[in-house]
Design brief:
The complex is a heterodimer of chains A (about 400) and B (about 100). Chain A has 12 helices and 15 strands. Chain A has about 400 residues and is α/β, with parallel strands linked by helices. Chain A folds into 2 domains: about 240 residues, Rossmann fold; about 140 residues, Rossmann fold (3-Layer(aba) Sandwich). In chain A, the strands form 3 sheets. Chain A has a 7-stranded mixed β-sheet, with helices on both faces. In chain A, strands 9-11-10-13-14-15 form a 6-stranded mixed β-sheet, with helices on both faces. In chain A, strand 14, helix 12 and strand 15 form a beta-alpha-beta unit. Chain A starts with a strand and ends in a 7-residue tail after the last strand. Chain B contains 2 helices and 2 strands. A two-stranded antiparallel ribbon of chain B has the order 1-2. Chain B is elongated and about 55 Å long. The chains are: A alpha/beta (about 400), B little secondary structure (about 100). Chains A and B meet through helix 8 of A and loops of B.
Chain lengths: ~400, ~100
């Protein structure tokens, strides 16, 4: 029986970690994810978990300690945001290349500078090619649910990759919403125990991890990582199916909201999907066939499935909460456009960079995108594919 | 575990380059990194025992029977020259490789 509660996104993440009861949590506080290790250290102090909590002196050390713990054969978790993830960056790559299924709760925040502590996705986009599985969460419920599924995905023997669960800083991390929690013993049963095949503390099999890997080997090891990332897609779907038969809550690679019969749609991630759903409802009431595709699994990117889902539309807008500063558009836009092109699906697509540094994105903003899409659907033309939403404009 | 070399197909390689056995450094012969080579001049050697403890690569073999040092193990000697520096009897000279 699920338990009705009301929790912030950070409390939801910390509660999931409590129920998972990992062997090691190593973390350093940074806004807006600070509350996750803060709540978790309370659980440790109160004896709710038997986790070894390592209060490290930096995020580089937090990820290093997680790597050491996982390599030793333990289950390790951490949480961070923005510049904390930037400081982890070196070790983020070590974790994935050593194939250690560490789970990280990432509360998305703008990477400075100039100094900003509010939500955008520039932290996550900075590690999008680092070999981590990346799940995005619209609200506290999804942040909680994604964490409950995380270990079974990451630790699967065909995957063995680290995984991060993203949610929007402040917008969901500090907003209290209703949530359905699962019972401790059921969570424990679903997550299962971690028994790696090879680990450093196994005295029956001494092993070396992270050896010198020069021209004759690194290429193959990177391709193995890429293959594991491809294999993760089926594993995510299987774990999500098991999760659904337990909790009744459905998760796929992405969520299709009124997408079946729509003329045009927005593609976005995290909390903005909630705003977009409200706008879709309003437009549908007026007889306008608007839809939404919310990406849940960003890495591995579900290219074929996204292309198929968008193939019959008259216009698509991709919303990026991080500017790639590359002169051509945001990262999600590039991924969607590439997916469509490779699949041979030709639909007019436009990109909006929005919500940078915590800039509010309102229903009116989203509605203006649907209005633009309506025009694009009629003309079939996109004059400027790289746009801003909610930017104060002068004469530019 | 079976040997992995530069002909091993990707499917037979361990993930992350993990090595599931101990004591494998001897499989990695580092002698070809050498640019200068120590030459053992046996007639000058008094078997004083100063050279082999300072060798970082354990590349100066010492016989268990008579505790006498023998010629260099060039599979592992990197040519650092520490042995030549400590030798009081000019029994080790450094020579450029490939000359």
């Amino acid at each position: 029986m699920s338990i009705r509660e009301r929790l912030s996104g950070n409390e939801a993440a910390a509660t999931a970690m409590k129920q998972i009861n990992p062997d090691v949590v190593a973390a350093f506080p940074i806004t807006p994810s600070t509350e996750i290790p803060q709540y978790f250290s309370t659980f440790v102090a109160n004896g709710n978990v038997d986790t070894e909590f390592v209060a490290v002196e930096s995020e580089h050390s937090a990820m290093s300690a997680c790597i050491g713990a996982e390599a030793a054969g333990a289950r390790a978790m951490t949480a961070t945001s923005a510049n904390g993830l930037s400081l982890m960056w070196e070790m983020i790559y070590i974790a994935s290349s050593l194939r250690l299924p560490i789970v990280l709760s990432l509360v998305n925040r703008a990477v400075s500078g100039p100094l900003n502590i509010h939500c955008d996705h520039s932290d996550a986009m900075g590690v999008r090619d680092s070999g981590w599985i990346m799940l995005f969460s619209e609200n506290n419920q999804e942040a909680y649910d994604n964490l409950l599924m995380a270990h079974r995905i990451a630790e699967n023997e065909n995957v063995l990759l680290p995984l991060m669960v993203c949610q929007d800083g402040f917008i969901t991390s500090h907003s209290i919403e209703n949530i359905e929690l699962e019972e401790d013993d059921k969570v424990k049963k679903f997550v299962g125990e971690y028994h790696p095949n090879h680990y450093l503390l196994n005295d029956k099999e001494p092993m070396a991890i992270g050896p010198l890997d020069l021209q004759a080997y690194l290429f193959e090891h990177k391709a193995q990582q890429a293959n594991a990332m491809k294999a993760a897609k089926d594993v995510i779907l299987q774990v999500s199916k098991d999760f659904e038969s337990w909790t009744g809550r459905h998760y796929g690679l992405f969520e299709e909201y009124m997408l079946d019969d729509c003329d045009f749609a927005i593609v976005c991630m995290n909390s903005t999907a909630g705003t977009a759903k409200a706008v879709v409802n309003d437009l549908r009431a007026k007889g306008i066939k608007a839809g939404l595709l919310k990406i849940r699994v960003y890495r591995p990117f579900p290219a074929e499935e996204v292309a198929e889902a968008l193939s019959n539309l008259k216009a698509v807008a991709v919303l990026d909460r991080a500017d790639s500063l590359n002169g051509m558009g945001g990262a999600l836009f590039e991924d969607v456009v590439s997916s469509m092109y490779v699949a041979g699906k030709q639909v007019p697509i436009v990109n909006y960079v929005y919500g940078i540094g915590g800039r509010d994105t309102t229903c009116n903003d989203i509605e203006s995108v649907y209005n633009d899409l309506s025009e694009i659907a009629q003309s079939g033309k996109v004059d400027n594919p790289y746009r801003y939403l909610g930017l104060r404009k002068g004469d530019m | 575990m079976s040997e992995i070399n530069n002909n091993t197909p990707i499917d037979e390689m361990t993930i992350g380059g993990n090595i599931y056995e101990a004591g494998n450094a001897r499989n990695f012969k580092t002698g070809d990194w050498r640019s200068v080579k120590p030459v053992f001049i046996r007639e000058n050697c008094r078997q004083c025992g100063l050279c082999f403890p300072v060798c970082p690569e354990n590349a100066i073999p010492v016989s268990k029977d008579d505790l006498q040092r023998t010629d260099f193990n060039y599979d592992y000697c990197k040519g650092c020259g520490v042995c030549a520096k400590v030798c009081p009897f000019s029994a080790i000279t450094m020579k450029e490789e490939g000359v």
